[in-house]
Amino acid sequence: MKRVVISGVGAVSAMGNDVSSLVKGIEEKKSAVHYMEGWDQYIGLRSLVGAPAKLINEKTIPRKNRRSMGRMSIFAVQAAEQALSNAGIKHDELTSGRIGCIIGSTMGSAKSLNETFEIMLPQKDLTQLSSMKFFQCVSHTAAMNVSQCLGITGCVLATSAACASALQAISVGYDLIRLGKQDAVLCGGAEELHPTVTGSFDVLFATSSNYNDKPHKTPRPFDRDRDGLVCGEGSGILVIEEYERALKRNSKIYAEIIGYHTCGSGMHVSQPDKNSIASCLRQALASASVSSDEVDYINAHATATIQGDKEEVKAIKEVLGDSIPVSSLKGYIGHTLGASGALELIVSLAMMEKGIIYPTMNLDNVSPDCQGINHVMEAVSKDISIMVKNCFAFGGINSVLVCKKL
Amino acid sequence: MKHKITENEIIAMTNQVFEESFEIETEKLQPQMNIFEDLGLDSLDIIDLIVALQQKFGVQIRNDERVRDIRTLEDVYRFILSLKNEEH
After folding, report:
1. CA A115 to chain centre
2. Residues A32, A35, A41: CA angle, nearest 5 degrees
3. Is the ipTM of this complex over 0.95?
4. Contact A241, A94 (CB under 8 A)
5. Catalytic annotation, pick one of A194, A335, A370, A375
6. SS3 of A393, please?
7. Is A91 a catalytic residue?
8. Which residues of A34-69 are buried (b: 16+ CB within 10 A; e: fewer)?
9. Given A69, A132, A163, A185, which is the most exposed site by the fewest CB atoms within 10 A?
């Protein structure tokens, strides 16, 4: 099996439109969560907060490429361009067939989906529909648009597993490179903030609704006063590459991917399950040939839902014990769903590089049901050699990635 | 009485569709321009051109065979003009 390293990163998030603004915002303990103007017109929508990214410079993407892109695909293309540039991979290498593109998301562009229904449904009339709506709405819209825009001719795949989408994309890319099917893969996730997206969690009572008048105070992962998730948006894209190739190119290597696991709970579509999370953690560590005492940091999924945080804590405690530092990044940038695995991994790589662990924002009082693990409540200096990244999705889908500093 | 749209209004409104929907600079919008070769539209754009013209002029042209004969911007002007004349 070939070794796989991360050699480039790119990000668009509510903190800004590059990796440095994302890391800087988190380092400065800023919250990118805001009150969403206009959302109060939706009857029954309790959560009126979100972490919106800014759509900027989209016209630098040629119209013929841009026309098939919704908001999330534009974010993905911009993050992918950054990741390529960061990795030092030139555009002409993308047509070799040896570089792939795997980008996941919960679904296609929510805005475009809504526009489609608004055009089509009132009169049950399809004659006013743009030819581009299909390309903006499909589940593989981000992967498709990035590969078309950049001319990528390798494997193009879209992992669609809600909040586990990006981590699954990276894991699939890892396997393709390990098996020698691709030399490098642009992989990650993209997502778009929209009242219908927040609404879909809101009807399940999984969103934060008590902080509409103080948005910076939510979400509150692991906290006593947590009351649910806050949706965010953006895209995180990483270049993962065969180790020898990255060495030959003298590329910066952020970390080596040494293992992963993804599995279903087989129990319930929305109730997280400690046993299934623990099983995923164990199998990820086993695939990396790492024992629990070798792990230096766990970047939690922790979205600030009552059930999810509690079950994740129980699983971490059971598999990894009570001493490894754990933090969640959702208090800063919200839950970016399909993009979260990649965006949060990128920030975790920055922590690894700087030797600092960023704390869980808004974790003021650890909830009694989230005790028993080493919560990071203030930034701490620590050498991170091996880290674990968790992502768990509705549908009972777990995903865990293990990375090692070289 | 319904206002009869003038030829100049049709030209201006059609040009507006090309500027707004296809981001084509005003200077390029000359009647003799081939909408494919000179203005860069492709088959997918034609679907969106039809939708945009339908909305702009309040017409239904999706199944009109004459759309297939359109090559130049002037063809678009003439096609819309003929549709409007048929209304009166």
Report:
1. 25
2. 145
3. no
4. no
5. A335
6. strand
7. no
8. bebeebeeeeebbbbbbbbbeeeeeeebeeebbbbb
9. A132
Which amino acid is present at A62? P
> What is the token pair recorded at A211?
């902080």
Query: What whole-number distance in Å separates Cα of residue A154 and Cα of residue A258?
Result: 23
Largest separation between any pair of C-alpha atoms in chain A: 62
- For B5, which DSSP code? P
Whether A131 sits inside 8 A of B55 (CB atoms) is no
Answer yes or no: is A253 within a domain.
Answer: no
Contact yes or no for A315/A289 (Cβ under 8 A): no
Q: Domain range spanning residue A400?
A: 259-404
Give the 3-state secondary structure of residue A11.
strand
We report the CATH number of the domain holding residue A62 as: 3.40.47.10
Give the pairing of strands A255-264 and A397-404: antiparallel
Instruction: Of A159-168, A244-253, A394-403, B78-87, give the lowest mean pLDDT range.
Output: B78-87
CA distance A106 to A6: 24
| CA distance to partner chain A, nearest, from residue B87 (Å) | 20
**SS3 annotation, A151-210:** CCCCCEECCCCHHHHHHHHHHHHHHHHHCCCCCEEEEEEEECCCHHHHHHHHCCCCECCC
Domain CATH for B66: 1.10.1200.10
Of A127, A131, A132, the CB nearest to B54: A127
Check pLDDT > 90 for residue B88.
Answer: no
Does residue A139 register a pLDDT over 90?
A: yes
Inter-chain touch B48–A127, beta carbons under 8 Å: no
Q: Note whether residue B2 is domain-resident.
A: no
pLDDT at B87: 80
- The mean pLDDT value for A207-220 works out to 98
Closest C-alpha to A172, from A234, A262, A94 = A262
Instruction: Indicate which of A123, A125, A130, A134 best probes the interface with B, i.e. most B CBs within 10 Å of its own CB.
Output: A130
Nearest alpha carbon to residue A316 among A382, A256, A392, A385: A392
User: Rounded to the nearest 5°, which phi and psi values hold at A292?
Assistant: -60, -30
